[in-house]
Amino acid sequence: MEPRFKPVADHALLVTFSDVISEEAHAAVIALDQAIAADAPDGVIETVPALVNLLVSFDPIETDHSTVESHLRTQLKGLESRKIIGVDRHVQVCYEGPFAPDLEAVAAATGLSQEAVINAHLAGDFHVLMYGFSPGYAYLSGVPKAIQVPRKPAPVRGVPAGSVIIAGPQCLITTLTMPTGWSIIGRSPTPIFTGNPDHPFLFDVGDSVVFERVDLKTYEELCKEQVDG
Amino acid sequence: MASAKFSVSFAGPLVTMQDAGRPGNMRYGVAASGPMDRLAFDAAHAALGNKAGLNAIEISLGGLMLQCTEGSVSVAITGGDFVVEHAGQKTGSWTILTIRKGEKLAIRAGKAGSWAYLAFAGDLASEKWLGSQATHASSGFGGGVVQGGQTLVVADAAVREERAGEIAQPEFASDGAMRVVLGPQDRYFTAEALEHLLSAPFAVSDAYDRMGMRLNGPTLEMEHALSIPSEPIVRGSIQVSGDGAPTVLLADHQTTGGYPKIATVISCDTDRLTQLRAGQKIRFASVSTQQAVDAARDYAQQKAQYLAQISVARGTLAQRLMRENLIHGWADD
Hints:
Largest interface: A-B, 43 and 43 residues
Mean pLDDT of chain A: 94
Radius of gyration of chain A: 20 Å
Largest sheet of chain A: 7 strands, mixed
Shape of chain B: globular
Distance between the termini of chain A: 46 Å
Order of helices and strands of chain A: EEHEEHEHHEEEEEEEEH
Oligomer: heterodimer
Strand order of the largest sheet of chain A: 5-13-6-7-10-9-12
């Protein structure tokens, strides 16, 4: 894919692969992101992968837009056949009672039983697209068509951290109390903020995510384990 | 060295602990945070003879009142034109003074500026998150919001009388239009919108916090009503919402968003931008990427010189008198 390079102020470049969301564009974003992680141009401070573009920010004292751009263009040439390196991440979900306030409505809207909605969710092929909106809030692709439901007419406030949400084709796990207009189908005891300084967030963009069903008792035990350390 | 303690008798909203910030985490949805006015923050530490980037308190227009309950410590107050009251004396921000047990310090909004910095000659204790004490205000992560009733502890508190007095204010920052590089989504806007952005004055609105500053002014119309895929944001991004109103995103910005960004304020103009208040007017001027990089380099050089200048202790009164005498003696010979 032929990317478009746009300057962002004095200190970044936005590399855009497509104006519309596609798997191909996202694969190109991740490939370039991983290539920069392996061999960063001088002066590059950080990269931010998103759905169709990658932000590459740099220190303008050390380098400039055209120097970084020519380095990235060289890196892009070798990327066509690059395989995305992602890790399988496991996330437990409890789909019971008050943790799944919208499960019944999703079942009604899709014509499935609640059990079938849960099984469809567990069967999804989830990949981490990007983080955004708030710290640790990751957008996962892979919600099966059968359970993709539209946004609710009004957002619900005070949705607790750990809520598992389906938002059209995307699945999200909240990390802070926040409002959402999308459907909450479960609660996860798996911390996205890992507390590990070497790997502070559970996912990297490009990882695969496997959801695992747990009952209420297991959920509570897992939460207690974290509190006890 | 001993520690100093303070009890917070009053803290306005958005008074937070801030160190230099946590860059490198935007890919996980985490903005760098850190001070809104990085120049004033750096000046406070330099003038005190501190290491750069230590934890300090960022004070909003709401103000802050403290009482020292233990020990003594020198502090620097910089940023804007705030009012500082200490031990019966009233001064402005850009000052260094020493607070001793029992004394009170009040910092209030003055004639100008939105943010002041209170740095201590010592180590201001607070929580860390991802290796930084900077507060991400909307989540509360990091050092945290400073609140009335709280106790502040400064470890290794030092008294540096040789640094007491006024801090020279920086004079190199441009006072003209805020310089922007157009884009990255300028192509979605009408020609009139781009012309309005670069010609009309905008006014800072009341919707101003650590996340961003919404501006009042002409409506910036887009060519198509569109939804662009959510994409990365930086400090300084000017995003335009569906109603055509621009918001400049600042220290605690969201890391991604689906509103188009018409332009981006260059990094060295965001410090002075953050010191504006509701109602104040701003203009934007477009510069090339080369001009933007040159401006960043000039600013960095001038800032380094300025910080080096103010970091030199002028000496205690006795030392200063001695120096005067020596100079006199030499001149008389």
